[in-house]
Amino acid sequence: MCTDSAVDEDAVTYIVTTTLAPAFAPSANVSHIKESATLAVASRARALKAAGREILDLGAGEPDFDTPEFIRRAAQKAIDSGATRYTATEGILPLRQAIAAQANADPAEVVVSTGSKQSLFNACFALFGPGDEVLVPTPSWTSYYEMVSLARAKAVPVHGHVTRGLKVTADELARAATSRTKGLMLNSPCNPTGSAYDTNELSEILDLAASKGWWVISDEIYQRIAYEYPAPSALSLMPDGSRDRLVLVNGVAKSFAMTGWRIGWAIAQRPVAAAMNALQSHTTSNPATPSQYAALAALTDTAAADAAIAHMVATFRERRDAAMTILDSAGVTYVRPDGAFYLYVRVGDGDAFATRLLDAHGVAVVPGSAFLTPEWVRLSYAAPTATVIEGVKRLTLLLKSPA
């Protein structure tokens, strides 16, 4: 029997409870969910940096710019004015009015959430269920597949051809559809490829969806980060101007360099918005109050916002062009990005290549298996120009070196 008065009772309790407690088995709700590959890459890169390695991180999915000062000031003012309490679950009315005004919608059709990721999840959970199939143009952001699965529906990947920047056509979607198809996830400009659907391409897809009675969830978070031509919005191209079966998702994360503020929104017909709002009331309630006022400034001070976005997009374009020059000179196959801040490069075995590139050459990229295209890797040029150029050079050298 131990008589030492210095026994750590917390440690004893831990030993006893962990010894006697049954092993954890996740519920069927989450047992099939995979960790986000993009977050896993970021975590691995941080661990190597902490160990003293110099890492060129081209895995980031966020702008490397500070949130514009006028937005930060608005948040500070809101906090000083006492805007630190709960708001309506769907967000403050002035913010919903600003969002609605840009979309020619009604504030009652807007639900503001804790980032566009929550908006997308709310939409999937409200619209889809067991037995439903949802078409997902592939490659697409990894979370789409998991969100559809969490709604107990089935995500159906539809692969596009490399000659079209891996975009899908209406015909390809039609061939992949079945009697169980209920919806379609769209993202333009696209993560991970940077491809953007032009007006004709998007119109044909929306016409098909309307003829089939599918729901369309259009993720337009990268819309304002576009280069050669503006990325069209599904909101303005719906057949006959009808938006009855459209859920448009957007937010301030990418265009305004506000990833950490966690503000996104969905615009949908009132019954759908009400269903998403009810769901949100039982999960997160309202998004952070000061962040809502920051987003309000981003959407209403249009002169300052346009200038900040123009500067960021011009910088991204310079980096993109510099990276493409290196890839072109080496004869590397990649998707030419129309928007966002990603380059998608064909490398063969993306998992093995990404591991070698990180461990041996100190460059972090995301393997394409995360986006159901394992022959590719995604690199981000949301990093300092010198980092992008050096990282792409190392990638190209590894790709061209003997195995």
Top-tier CATH class of the largest domain: Alpha Beta
The low-confidence runs, each spanning 5 or more residues with pLDDT under 50, are 1-17
- Spatial strand order of the main sheet: 2-8-7-6-5-3-4
Please state the CA-atom Rg, rounded to the nearest Å: 23 Å
Kindly give the count of domains.
Answer: 2
- By oligomeric state, this entry counts as single chain
Order of helices and strands: HHEHHEHEHEHEHEEEHHHEEHEEEH
How large is the count of helical segments?
13
What is the arithmetic mean of pLDDT?
92
Question: Share of helix among residues?
Answer: 40-55%
What class do helices, strands and sheet pairing give?
alpha/beta
Structure summary, number of beta strands: 13
What best-fitting shape do the alpha-carbon axes yield? Answer: globular
How large a portion of the residues is in β-strands, by DSSP E? 5-15%
Terminal-residue CA separation:
62 Å
Characterize the main sheet. 7 strands, mixed
Architecture per CATH nomenclature, i.e. the level-2 architecture of the largest domain: 3-Layer(aba) Sandwich
CATH superfamily membership of the largest domain, which one? Type I PLP-dependent aspartate aminotransferase-like (Major domain)
CATH topology of the largest domain, what is it called? Aspartate Aminotransferase, domain 2
